[in-house]
Design goal:
The chain contains four helices and no strands. The chain is mostly helical and 123 residues long. It has one domain (5-120): 23S rRNA-intervening sequence (de novo design (two linked rop proteins)), CATH 1.20.1440. Helix 1 (9-25) runs antiparallel to helix 4 (96-120).
């Protein structure tokens, strides 16, 4: 595990997702600053953060654990974005690029988790 988390494509893609999320949520109404905006940003930030933390934890088992946490944060983010799409004050925003990026990140995380699980015999 000599490769840095910064070298992982899934970390790079999830980092880019966070930037996209911040740009999108800047357009949310001010009254959502401590509600949905905060929740969405925290879930997004959690993805690359958990990838990084897991990478440096020292064992493959811990890395897999943190990848699963990142995957769970992605599922939270999917749900929160779906809520935003259905709210009157945020439903007019364009979620296309963020949905595409999040979908890619989720697929990449899932593939990496499966790959590490099969190579270590932990399913």
């Amino acid at each position: 595990m000599s490769q840095s988390y910064r070298d992982l494509l899934v970390w790079k893609k999830s980092f880019h997702l966070v930037i996209e999320i911040y740009k999108l949520t800047e357009k949310f109404p001010k009254e959502e600053r401590y509600g949905l905006t905060s929740q969405i940003r925290r879930a997004a930030v959690s993805i690359p953060s958990n990838i990084a933390e897991g990478r440096y934890r020292g064992s493959m088992k811990e890395f897999q654990h943190f990848l699963r946490i990142a995957f769970g944060s992605g599922a939270e983010l999917e749900t929160q974005l779906e809520i935003a799409k259905h709210l009157q004050k945020t439903n007019q925003l364009d979620y296309t690029q963020i949905n595409n990026t999040l979908s890619e990140v989720m697929k990449m995380l899932n593939a990496l988790i499966k790959k590490l699980s099969s190579s270590s015999g932990n399913e």
